[in-house]
Amino acid sequence: MTLRHLRIFTAVCQCGSATEAARRLYMTQPAVSLAISELESHYGVRLFDRISRRLHITEPGRQLLARAGQILDLIDQLEEEMPGGRGGRLRIGASITVGSEFLPGCVERFSAAWPEVEVQVRVDSSETIEGLLLENRLDMGLMDGPARDGQLAAHPFLEDELGLFCRPGHPLLARQPLPPGELARQPLLLREAGSGARKVFESALITRGMEVSPAWESSSTRALKEAARQGLGIAVLPVRLAAEEMASGALCRLAVEGMPLVRSLCAVYHKNKYLTPAATAFLEICTGAKSGPAKGPGRQGGGGRDQLE
User: Residue 178 has what DSSP assignment?
Assistant: First the structure.
């Protein structure tokens, strides 16, 4: 069994067929099939079931895929870190809110300290980022709230409060503080399903026996703020991201009795993932473990805690 076997096996799992894997790897299909057969013979297990001319990974195959990903990742990291290597790469994912407000400052600080490391960024929903971490397609994710999967480790770095916002002059402003049940009778303007903010709000309502049926769903905070400003409903937003509108009087915050909406923004990575020195430095920047400038290779220093402002 060689690294070549593991790379071929991983490609077949990702592509779902030996033919597609062969095309990706610039190999012939018989050569790919032979490598899979050699792996199965080496371990004495069947890695795929061949049903209706399709490959379906077996449980032993899933176990091998998890370990193969770790091994190949370590080899790639070694190639990047050794003198004369490619310089290094850090694959970072972020939820939409964190990616737009918090991540750019972290990447800027990191790149100033580690200029030789290429940073690749993916901004998407928390659910998507979590899935990419589990597939080893990201090294680290910055997400709204802790990960749901037990295979992921989470480091909280910032408490983020959510609030309910409406247009000035809205009738509900005269009835504050509102009972939580009032929210079920209002048109709600919410982030998309799977987002951290949506999960926090849904959980708060469900624990009080209420269902969530939004009038609007959007991945754009700006769109939700504008809809609330036009009087189309009650928007659930991070308080930090509505500060400018509150200061200008464009939006008003509603008080709700006994329903705090607080979440922890977290840096997340796979528990079995080897964190390179560069990845560790990025984690420390995010979690505020250092004070002062970000510490690069061979440098001394540290930095204050970043804030969403």
Answer: B
- Is the same domain home to 163 and 258? yes
DSSP string, 127-155: HHHHHHHHTTS-SEEEEES--SSTTEEEE
Q: Spell out the residues 6+ positions from residue 128 whose beta carbon is closer than 8 angstroms to its own.
A: 93, 194
CA distance 180 to 145: 22
Helix, strand, or coil here: 280? helix
User: What is the per-residue pLDDT across 86-100, written as a single tens digit (0 to 9) for each?
Assistant: 457 889 999 887 887
The angle that helices 3-15 and 18-25 make with each other, rounded to 10 degrees, is 120
Q: What is the pLDDT of residues 284-306, one digit of tens each?
A: 998 884 433 344 554 333 333 33
CATH code assigned at 222: 3.40.190.10
pTM, rounded to two decimals: 0.58
